[in-house]
Specification:
Blueprint (H helix, E strand, L loop, with lengths): L5 H14 L3 E3 L23 H5 L8 E9 L16 E10 L4 H15 L7 E6 L3 H11 L6 E4 L1 H4 E2 L4 E12 L20 E14 L5 E14 H8 L9 H13 L7 H22 L8 H20 L6 H12 L4 H5 L1 H35 L4 E2 L1 H11 L3 H10 L3 E2 L1 H15 L26 E2 L6 E11 L2 E3 L1 E3 L3 E6 L1 E2 L13 E5 L2 E11 L3 E10 L1 E3 L3 E6 L1 H25 L5 E6 L4 E6 L6 H16 L4 E6 L1 H6 L14 E6 L3 E4 L14 E10 L2 E8 H21 L8 H40 L2 E3 L2 E9 L3 H14 L3 E9 L2 E8 L1 H5 L4 H11 L3 E4 L3 E6 L5 H15 L1
Parallel strand pairs: 1-2, 4-5, 10-11, 12-17, 31-32
Antiparallel strand pairs: 2-3, 3-9, 4-7, 6-7, 7-8, 8-9, 13-14, 13-16, 13-22, 15-21, 16-20, 18-19, 18-22, 19-20, 23-24, 24-29, 25-26, 26-27, 28-29, 30-31, 32-33, 33-35, 34-35
Helix pairs in contact: 3-4, 7-8, 7-10, 8-9, 8-10, 8-12, 9-12, 10-12, 12-13, 13-15, 16-17, 20-21, 23-24
C-alpha cells in the first residue's frame, strides 16, 4: 500500500476522476441551500439532491467532489471506536444519466488497487441480494471470487429516502485483520466490529419509489458514490483509528500538550479524541457562518463545543483551550479549505466567546446538578426528573448529553421522555413551524410543477428594457396558457432585465407590455427548479404563452436599490476598519427604501463608533471611486483579496465587484458605476439581533435626504415648543428644563417620602410576619396594592436589611396590571435560587413576562387578578429550587 497523507489522497482521487471526464465541484457549505430537510450537510449526495430530482440541472453529466460533512447521530461512539467522527470528508463521483455500473465498479477497483496500492486480497464487497448485474461485474469483470462477494438484504444494501430516486448499492470493505475484530466465529462482512471496515459505497440510482411503496425504473439512471476520506487514510496509513491519521493526530497532539501529557490511554485518550473531533467540527461550522444558539444548527455547534469543554476538564486542562485547538484545526485543513484561513479571526473569536460564556455558567450548573444528585441518592432514587434536566439545559446551558454523561459516571440517569416533553413545549412556544413534506424538506408549490431549468437570460446589468418571449404562465394554483385582466400571475421569460431577489437584494419591479397588454410586475424571484418568475397582475389585455413582449424595469426603484446595495459594501469595509477584522457579514437585505446589514460583533456600537462608520462611508462616496465589475475564478478572486459570504456556494466563475482599494467582494447584485452615484449615507439604527450578531439599518440618496428633512422639521417643532429661536439653542434650553424638573421631583419625593416612610415601615413589618422558613432560608412573597416600581424598590431595600438569607418576591398591583420585583441573597443563589426564573413564571400567570439575574429580577403582567396565584407559585418555585 502507498503511504499517503490525507491531502495527497484527496488530491489523487480528484485528479483521477477529472482525468475520466468529471467536472470537479468545490465542497458546498455545511449549511444546506434550498433544502429544509437537513440542518447540516451530512453526505456528499446531500448537495446533489436537486440534480437527482431534476429540480436543477447539474453543471455536467458526471461530477466529482470532496464534501465536508457534519453528522452527530453517532456522537456517543465518537472517540471510542476506530471510525466515527462528527466531522468527516466524503469523496464522491456522480453520474446523471451518463455512466452506470459497468463503468463505476472498475473505476472504483482501479482507484483502490492501482492508485492507492491496496492489495486485492484485503478487499471484499457486498451487493444487494437481487442485484445480479453488480454481482456479475464484480465476479466476471473484476475477477473476485464468490467468497469475496456477499449478498445482503435490502436493509444493508439498498439506498432510499422516502419517495423519489433510489436503488441498490455495493459496498467495498477492507479487512483490517483478525486483531481488529470481535473474534466471533461468524465475523465477516456485515459484522458490527471494526475488522471489515466499509471504505466505499457505490449507489446505483435506477428506481423511483412511488407513493404507494412500489418501484418503477428511472428513464435516466444515475451513480452516487461515497467514500470516507478518513477511513481510507486509516487503511493507507495503517492507523488504529481516524484519530491516528496525520491531520487529526496533529490536532489531538495539541490537546495532549495542553493537558501536559505525552500520550494517553483509556478514558483520557477518549477525552482527547473527542476534543480533537468536536473542536475541528465547530471550527468548520463557524467558518460557514453557524453561530451558537439553543436551536437548530446553532445548538449542534453549542452542544459539540460544550461537550469538548467538559472533556477538557476531565483531561485536566486548566483554563480556556478551545481557541488553541481550533487554530490547530485550521492549520491542518487550510490546504483544502481556504475559507478557514480567510475566516480565522471570526472563527477564533466566536468559539472563544462561547467557551467563556459556558465556563461562567458551568460552576453554578454543576453545583445545582450535584445538589440534585445528592438529593435523589439520599431518597434512594436513581433518576432526575426531565424538568430538572431541562432547567439545566435552558438556564445553565448544559446539553442533555453532558448531563447524561455526568449522571452515568455517578450511576444515575434522568427522565429523557420528560426532558423531551419540556423541550417540545419550548419549541412550540418559540419556533416557527417548518414544513418538511418532500425530499428537499419543503412544501410542494405550483412552481415545482414547472419544467425545470427554463433558460432566462439576465440582461439587467446592461439594459433596463428588452424584448422577451413568455415561456410559462402561472395563475393561482395552476400552470395556464393565458391570463386576462385582473388575474394575479407569475411569468417565466426567456430574457429579462428584472433582477430576481438574491444575495439579500430585493427583486425589481416594473412592467411587461405588448400592443394592448399591460402587466404590472411587483417582484422577481427565483423558484424551485432553477426558474425565475416575474410576479404581478394583468392590468389590461390578455397575456399568452409564447407571445413576444417588452419587459421594462422601474428605473427609479432599481437606482435606489442599487445605491443601497453598493453602500453595504462600503459599510462592511468601514465596520472592519473601526471594529476589527473579526467583523463578517452574516446577512443583509437591500431594497429601494433602506439597507439592512447584519454583522458579527459582540458589543453595542458607541456613538463615536457610529459616527466614525458613517463618516468613512460618506467620505468614500464623495471620493467618486469607480466601481469595476469583472468575472474571474474563485481562486483568482481570493488572491485579489475578495471577501466571500458565509455559506455561499460559488461556481467555476464568480462576479467580483471592486471599489478602488476600498472594497473587493464576490457579489451577483446590481451596483452603481461610481460611488458618487450613491449620494449620501445615513445610519438609522444599530442593535443586537442574536448572540454575537449586530444589525445596522441605513439609507442612501433621496431616502437619506428625507431622513434629514424630517429630522430638521422635528427640531424646528421642538424649538418652537421650548420657545427658542434656533435649533442650536435647544440643548441648553432642555438642560434648563430638565434641571428644573429634577429639582421639583426631588421636592415632591421628599414630601412623599416623609409621608410614606412610616407607612412603608408598617408594610415591611407586615410582610415579614408572613414570611416562611425553608431549609434555613427566609422565603417571602407579598402583594402591594397601588405601588409603582419605585415604591416597590424602596420596600425591597428595607426588606434587604431584615432578610439576611433568603429570597423575596414583591407584586405591585396598579391599574389592573401587576409588576414583579425579586431579589435573593448570595447564599440563596448558591443554593439554587434563581430570581429571574421566579419572576418569569410568576409574570406568566399574570399574562406577562420578564426575567433577570439569579440575584435580582423584574417582570410585569397585564392581569393583576391572578396575582395571588402567581405569589403562591413563586413560593412553590423557591422551595423546589432549594
Amino acid at each position: 500500500m502507498k503511504s499517503l497523507t490525507v491531502n495527497q489522497i484527496r488530491d489523487r482521487y480528484l485528479d483521477l476522476f477529472a482525468a475520466k471526464g468529471h467536472h470537479l465541484l468545490q465542497s458546498s457549505p455545511l449549511v444546506p441551500q434550498g433544502d429544509n430537510s437537513l440542518l447540516l450537510i451530512n453526505s456528499g449526495v446531500a448537495t446533489m439532491k436537486a440534480f437527482f430530482t431534476g429540480q436543477e440541472k447539474p453543471p455536467a453529466p458526471r461530477v466529482a467532489s470532496c464534501q465536508k460533512c457534519i453528522r452527530t447521530t453517532d456522537i456517543d461512539d465518537v472517540g471510542k471506536d476506530a471510525r466515527h467522527g462528527s466531522f468527516f470528508e466524503m469523496l464522491g463521483n456522480f453520474s446523471f444519466g451518463d455512466y452506470f455500473k459497468k463503468e463505476v465498479i472498475p473505476w472504483a477497483w482501479e482507484f483502490l488497487t492501482v492508485e492507492m496500492g491496496i492489495p486485492a486480497d484485503k478487499l471484499s464487497v457486498s451487493v444487494y441480494e437481487e442485484d445480479d448485474e453488480a454481482y456479475d461485474i464484480w465476479h466476471d469483470v473484476i475477477g473476485l471470487a464468490p467468497e469475496k462477494i456477499f449478498k445482503l438484504d435490502k436493509a444493508e444494501n439498498f439506498w432510499e429516502h422516502g419517495v423519489g430516486p433510489c436503488g441498490p448499492c455495493s459496498e467495498i470493505h477492507f479487512d483490517r485483520g483478525a486483531e481488529a475484530g470481535c473474534g466471533k466465529p461468524g465475523c465477516q462482512v456485515g459484522c458490527d466490529c471494526d475488522r471489515f471496515m466499509e471504505v466505499w459505497n457505490l449507489v446505483f440510482t435506477q428506481f423511483n419509489k412511488n407513493e404507494d411503496g412500489s418501484y418503477s425504473p428511472l428513464e435516466l439512471t444515475g451513480i452516487d458514490t461515497g467514500m470516507g476520506l478518513e477511513r481510507l487514510a486509516i487503511v493507507l496509513q495503517e492507523a488504529p483509528s481516524i484519530f491516528d491519521i496525520d491531520n487529526i493526530r496533529g490536532i489531538r497532539q495539541a490537546v495532549l500538550e495542553l493537558a501536559g501529557l505525552e500520550t494517553a490511554t483509556g478514558s483520557k485518550l477518549v477525552s482527547a479524541n473527542i476534543i480533537a473531533d468536536h473542536v475541528r467540527s465547530v471550527a468548520f461550522m463557524a467558518a460557514d457562518g453557524v453561530l451558537p444558539s439553543n436551536e437548530g444548527r446553532g445548538y449542534i455547534l453549542r452542544r459539540l463545543l460544550r461537550r469538548a469543554v467538559r472533556h477538557g476538564q476531565s483531561l485536566g486542562i486548566n483554563g480556556a483551550f478551545v481557541v488553541a485547538i481550533a487554530k490547530a484545526s485550521i492549520d491542518a485543513y487550510s490546504h483544502a479549505y481556504a475559507n478557514l484561513t480567510e475566516k480565522e479571526s471570526f472563527i477564533l473569536q466566536t468559539l472563544g466567546q462561547e467557551e467563556s460564556r459556558f465556563m461562567e455558567t458551568l460552576d453554578t450548573g454543576m453545583n445545582l446538578l450535584q445538589k440534585q444528585m445528592d438529593s435523589i441518592k439520599a431518597n434512594g432514587k436513581s433518576t432526575i426528573s426531565g424538568a430538572d434536566a431541562f432547567k439545566l439545559y435552558d438556564t445553565y446551558g448544559f446539553p442533555p448529553d453532558l448531563t447524561r454523561e455526568i449522571l452515568e459516571d455517578a450511576g444515575l440517569k434522568f427522565d429523557e421522555d420528560g426532558f423531551k416533553r419540556e423541550m417540545e413545549a419550548q419549541k412550540q412556544r418559540a419556533r416557527q413551524a417548518r414544513g418538511v413534506s418532500n425530499y428537499m424538506g419543503a412544501d410542494e408549490t405550483v412552481y415545482h410543477r414547472l419544467e425545470p431549468n427554463m433558460p432566462t437570460l439576465f440582461c439587467g446589468y446592461e439594459a433596463d428594457t428588452c424584448q422577451a418571449k413568455i415561456l410559462a404562465i402561472v395563475a393561482g394554483d395552476g400552470i395556464v396558457d393565458s391570463a386576462t385582466a385582473g388575474q394575479e400571475i407569475s411569468l417565466v421569460l426567456d430574457n429579462t432585465p428584472f433582477y430576481a431577489e438574491s444575495g439579500g437584494q430585493k427583486g425589481d419591479g416594473g412592467k411587461i407590455t405588448a400592443n394592448d397588454l399591460a402587466v404590472e410586475i411587483y417582484d422577481c424571484i427565483n423558484v424551485a427548479g432553477g426558474n425565475t418568475v416575474h410576479v404581478g397582475k394583468v392590468i389590461s389585455g390578455t397575456v399568452k404563452k409564447g407571445a413576444t413582449v417588452t419587459a421594462t424595469i422601474d428605473t427609479t426603484r432599481r437606482q435606489s436599490t442599487t445605491g443601497n446595495h453598493s453602500a453595504t459594501h462600503l459599510l462592511q469595509k468601514a465596520l472592519r476598519e473601526v471594529l476589527g477584522d473579526h467583523v463578517e457579514q452574516s446577512g443583509s437585505e437591500v431594497s429601494q427604501d433602506r439597507l439592512r446589514f447584519d454583522f458579527t460583533h459582540n458589543a453595542p456600537l458607541s456613538a463615536e463608533q457610529r459616527d466614525q462608520i458613517e463618516t468613512l462611508v460618506n467620505q468614500r462616496i464623495w471620493q467618486a471611486i469607480p466601481v469595476d465589475v469583472m468575472l474571474t475564478t474563485p481562486e483568482e478572486a481570493r488572491k485579489s483579496g475578495a471577501m466571500a459570504l458565509f455559506g455561499e456556494k460559488y461556481g467555476d466563475t464568480v462576479r467580483m465587484v471592486k471599489m478602488g482599494d476600498q472594497s473587493i467582494e464576490l457579489c451577483g447584485g446590481t451596483h452603481v458605476a461610481n460611488t458618487q452615484q450613491i449620494g449620501v449615507f445615513k445610519l438609522l439604527s444599530e442593535g443586537g439581533i442574536a448572540s454575537g450578531v449586530r444589525r445596522i439599518e441605513a439609507t442612501t440618496g433621496l431616502g437619506a435626504i428625507n431622513v434629514y428633512r424630517e429630522a430638521h422639521k422635528t427640531l424646528q417643532a421642538a424649538a418652537e415648543l421650548c420657545k427658542v429661536q434656533k435649533p442650536q439653542d435647544l440643548p441648553a434650553r432642555l438642560d434648563a428644563i430638565l434641571a428644573e424638573n429634577k429639582e421639583l421631583k426631588k421636592e415632591l419625593t421628599k414630601i412623599q417620602s416623609e409621608a410614606s416612610g412610616q407607612e412603608q415601615a408598617e408594610v415591611v413589618a407586615s410582610l415579614c410576619k408572613n414570611a416562611e422558613t425553608h431549609g434555613g432560608f427566609t422565603l417571602l412573597a407579598g402583594k402591594l396594592e397601588n405601588y409603582d416600581i419605585e415604591a416597590m424598590r424602596n420596600v425591597a431595600d428595607m426588606l434587604r436589611k431584615d432578610i439576611k438569607s433568603g429570597c423575596v418576591l414583591l407584586c405591585g398591583v396598579n391599574a389592573g396590571a401587576a409588576q414583579f420585583l425579586a431579589f435573593a441573597t448570595d447564599d440563596a443563589v448558591k443554593a439554587g435560587i434563581h430570581a429571574g426564573e421566579i419572576v418569569k413564571e410568576a409574570a406568566k400567570i399574570c399574562g406577562g413576562g420578564g426575567g433577570g439575574k439569579p440575584s435580582q429580577a423584574q417582570a410585569g403582567g397585564k392581569n393583576a387578578e391572578n396575582a395571588d396565584a402567581a405569589l403562591a407559585k413563586a413560593i412553590e418555585l423557591m422551595k423546589s429550587m432549594l
